[in-house]
Amino acid sequence: MKVTDTSYGQGKDVRLATVRGTPVVVPTKRYSSKEKYLIDLKDAMNKSPKGKVSSKTKLNTCKKCANYINKLSLCKICKCVMVFKVNIPNQQCPIGKW
Asked: Tens of pLDDT along 79-94?
């Protein structure tokens, strides 16, 4: 498993990792139960800074980009599955489009 520097939520509790080429979210701290991990993950994903671009707008921007693989909803640059990435707060386009 390769863990990248991409952080979610407050950037302390979960990180993006790649398992066999598939992006997955993994905890960066030990949890006493699966339920506590899922609660932290849900909280991190629901935190949305005000004034940010909506996930629908982000995905539409991606779909117009030459680096977007439509059939897989995949970015050629960051290798992320964009239908998931656009819904995670504090994520950015690797070439600065959003």
From this structure: 999 999 998 877 889 8
